[in-house]
Design brief:
5-stranded parallel β-sheet, alpha/beta, 3 domains, 40% helix, Rossmann fold, 8-stranded mixed β-sheet, globular
Length: 586
């Protein structure tokens, strides 16, 4: 549902909150979530699929009816679309979407204004604590209504006339989902779709709702939330220390502020945070066993940051299979996937630079589509990542064929090798995923000026040689550049020769991670659920100053920086980076 549509329906959804906002009944939320004939695990798997994807156990899509009798497939309006993965709801565009988890549904909503004010303090037990954040959201929405002074719900707030309802039961939850009515029989106004279910499928979904955000995630105790960061042994000491020192300072500062707050008033929402280092040694194929042993000994809530120069895949797969969030690791070799959930990366890394080069080339070569495009890359994980990104994006453009040459392990990039790769064509396009070691060969090609060959290089691979591209090559060489071009305290900018212009900007990236953590810690209250952490990030309006030109978050998005520049070097002994494109976003 778009923010505009949500805004138009704000008072309806806020009124709907009163029908779903809190919940004890004859059918308790703690009942075993199993359906006759199905194991508990299978029940939850099928219920999760309906909740998240709108797909019935039969494999067919759910059907639903919107206000006005419009029929749609449930895949367009699955539960997760508005109530989010955790089931704890959201507050977006001035619109509150209520919780749908059993802990909330199976308790009553009291009608008096004073009871609503006391909701935060009077709900007892873990279930009560988990609903406390909705109290803050409710009161925040009331302040919004007060500012508008024209919303129907504001008058309900002003005169203390809240709608009330008893706790839901399995039967009344079924009525709400199928027929759009609360436990008192009051019909919802048509924002929430009416879904078509048979009894068995609906029982499976209700069983899933009872389990949703019911038990706090691993790594949480009464006093502490435990985190880990992963560092692989080949990372140099400077980068390792930059990551760990920044995180340790943040944890000390957070806990010091917590002690000050506790001295003023005790609040069970507060938790200390602790950080342990998981250092991975040996080849990547051994990392999985090391990760499992670390986690067995000391379960953590999430992995924060982390750093490696090798492929992140073993860590990614461990997190996906164990549902452990991994937040903004520093890697140029992330897993590129449209379906992964638990690892949030800064970008697609080298793959993203390859994509950028292909799309830029497709635009600029329209007037001469017959030119041969040759991609040359080393047989390494880094080379393959660049090449895969270029190949995938080039294929999507529908342009001409792509010739590929792989540099074998230990192979040198010579003039003869490159001339053979382009087949002697003086007007070829050479996409070369190597570092500055290729400069002599490029200069020697075509009698010293390379003929009409256009060259693409990676600024990340050129590292501190980025500003050393030989002047005869500059007019025909494009460079992918994934960071911001303006001057910044986080790294060098245009015209500066600091080696930080091509490093991995550890301090800036850790600063971005800390900004995200502040957003999470400020919003989640006692809802210490892994999925809820990502719900907060995905639906936040968080503005983070980072080494990248822009980073943004959104539901299900797992690459925060979605762009890259194409640059050239200016002439002269002190060249500057000159942007040839805007920040290209894909």
């Amino acid at each position: 549902m778009t923010p505009g549509r949500k805004a138009k329906a704000a008072w309806i959804l806020l009124a709907f909150l009163a029908t779903l906002a809190s919940a004890g009944s004859s059918t308790a939320a703690g009942d075993d979530p199993a359906v006759p004939g199905l194991s508990r695990g299978e029940t939850l798997r099928l219920g999760e699929r309906m909740y998240r994807d709108g797909i019935l156990p039969s494999g067919e899509p759910l059907t639903a009816t919107l206000y006005g009798g419009i029929h749609i497939e449930g895949t367009m309006f699955s539960c997760v679309s508005c109530h989010l993965r955790s089931g704890l709801g959201s507050f977006e565009g001035g619109v509150l979407t209520p919780p749908t988890n059993g802990v909330v549904l199976y308790k009553p909503w009291n009608s008096s204004r004073e009871d609503s004010r006391l909701w935060k303090g009077n709900l007892e037990g873990a279930g009560g604590l988990r609903t406390r954040s909705m109290y803050y959201v409710w009161m925040g929405s009331m302040e919004m209504m007060a500012a508008q002074r024209n919303a129907p719900l504001y008058n309900l707030y002003r005169f203390g006339k809240y709608p009330s309802r008893p706790a839901y039961t399995d039967e009344t939850v079924a009525d709400a989902i199928r027929g759009g009515a609360n436990p008192d029989g009051r019909e919802f106004i048509g924002v929430m779709p009416r879904y078509t279910f048979d009894d068995r499928d609906l029982a499976i979904l209700i069983a899933y709702l009872k389990s949703l955000s019911k038990d706090l995630s691993p790594g949480v105790t009464e006093t502490t939330i435990r985190f880990a960061t992963v560092v692989t042994e080949e990372v140099n000491r400077k980068e390792r220390d930059a990551l760990l020192a920044s995180l340790e300072r943040y944890f000390l500062s957070h806990n010091a502020r917590l002690l000050q707050q506790e001295a003023i008033h005790a609040d069970p929402d507060f938790r200390r945070i602790s950080l342990v280092l998981w250092e991975l040694k040996g080849p990547p194929e051994t990392w999985r066993g090391q990760l499992e042993e670390y986690y067995r000994k000391d379960p953590v809530f999430a992995l924060l940051g982390g750093i490696s120069t090798k492929e992140w895949r073993p860590i990614h797969e461990f997190c996906e299979e164990n549902a452990i969030p991994c937040l903004l690791p520093i890697t140029d070799l992330p897993v590129v996937s449209a379906t992964s959930w638990y690892t949030l990366y800064f970008s697609k890394g080298f793959y993203q630079e390859g994509e950028t080069a292909a799309r830029h080339l497709a635009r600029t070569e329209d007037s001469d589509p017959g030119r041969t495009v040759v991609q040359v890359y080393p047989d390494t994980p880094e080379g393959k990542a660049f090449a895969f990104g270029f190949r995938d994006a080039w294929s999507e453009t529908g342009r001409g064929p792509l010739v590929e040459k792989v540099i074998p392990a230990g192979g040198a990039v010579t003039r003869g090798y490159l001339e053979e790769a382009i087949g002697g064509q003086r007007r070829a396009v050479l996409v070369l995923w190597t570092g500055a070691e290729a400069f002599p060969a490029l200069e020697a090609m075509g009698g010293g000026d390379g003929g009409g060959t256009t060259v693409y290089l990676s600024g990340t691979l050129l590292k501190d040689r980025l500003l050393s591209v030989p002047e005869p090559l500059r007019e025909r060489t494009y460079i992918t550049y994934p960071y911001r071009l303006t001057n910044s305290a986080l790294g060098a900018g245009v015209g500066e020769t600091s080696p930080e212009i091509t490093d991995r900007r550890i301090a800036g990236k850790v600063g971005s991670l800390i900004a995200v953590l502040n957003e999470v810690f400020g919003a989640w209250r006692s809802n210490f659920y892994r999925d809820y952490m990502y719900d907060i990030i995905d639906t936040s309006m968080l503005v983070v100053y980072s080494p990248f030109e822009r980073i943004s978050f959104g539901p299900g998005q797992r690459y925060a920086s979605k762009g890259c520049y194409i640059v050239r070097l200016s002439k002269g002994a002190k060249p500057e980076l000159v942007g040839k494109t805007d920040w290209v976003v894909y």
